[in-house]
Amino acid sequence: MENEKYLFVVSGAAGTGKDSVVKALREAHPEIEKTVSATTRAPRPGEQEGVDYYYRTREQFRHLIDTDQVVEHNFYNGNYYGTLREEVDKRLEAGKLVVLVIDVHGAANIRRMFPGATTIFLLPPSVEELERRLRGRGTETEASILERLDTAKKELAQQEKFTLTLVNDEVDACAEKLYGIIRQRAGLDR
User: Fold this and answer.
1) Architecture of domain 2-185 in this structure
2) To 10 degrees, the CA torsion angle through 182, 188, 189, 190?
3) 103 φ, ψ to 5°?
4) Share of the chain above pLDDT 70, in %
5) Where does this protein have coiled-coil stretches (predicted)?
6) CB 98 within 8 A of CB 34
7) Which residues are annotated as a binding site?
8) Sequence-ordered strand ranges (E) for 40-90
């Protein structure tokens, strides 16, 4: 699809600030659209259906996968997560700039399905900062934090497979760097 140049993937290990950076990006540049993912996990306090995620049962999610309505998915910490095909296609067909916030495994699927997309790996300033961010959430058990840190170390090793890397030292500054990348890669600075 010609409009694949308008598709951007922001990925990285848990705790790198993917959601925070893309939220700041979209607040400053609302013309950039973010798809809403589907998941089988329960909503966290304050999360809303169709805003944060589409919350589905396992049976509903399996049906979406089986009927090719999911462009990428993963099973993580006992739940499915995925991007609905219609969320991507309708935006690209309209020529919209689209940012997907997905994990490392999902990014690999997007690279295969949308070879014209730009993939950006978000890095923490350090592994110590990553651990501090995960602990600061206050939503994880110690075992879950240790599991996420182990997974994060494996995911950090995947960064060379991405088009670009960005260090998230400070959310707003990182969001502006990301905006510059999007403008340049989408051909908007010509």
Assistant:
1) 3-Layer(aba) Sandwich (3.40)
2) 140
3) -75, 175
4) 99
5) none
6) yes
7) 12-19
8) 53-55, 70-76, 79-84
Q: What is the pTM of this model?
A: 0.82
Residue 72's DSSP bridge partners are 83
Binding site listing for ATP: 12-19
pLDDT at 95 over 90: yes
Q: How far from 141 is each of 68, 70, 126, 138, CA to CA, in Å?
A: 34, 30, 22, 8
DSSP 116-184: T-EEEEEE-S-HHHHHHHHHHH--S-HHHHHHHHHHHHHHHTTGGGSSEEEE-SSHHHHHHHHHHHHHH
In sequence order, the 6+-apart residues with CB closer than 8 A to the CB of 175 are 21, 22, 24, 25, 28
Tell me the C-alpha distance between 165 and 12, whole Å.
Answer: 9
Quote the tokens at residue 140.
């994880």
Q: Are 85 and 71 in contact (CB under 8 A)?
A: yes
pLDDT in tens, 14-33: 778 899 999 999 999 999 99
Q: Determine the Cα–Cα distance for residues 147 and 132; give it in Å rounded to an integer.
A: 14
The whole-angstrom separation of Cα 97 and Cα 25 is 12
CB–CB of 111/119 below 8 Å? yes
Nearest Cα residue to 36 out of 79, 90, 104: 90
Taking the C-alpha atoms of residue 133 and residue 63, their distance in angstroms, rounded to an integer, is 35
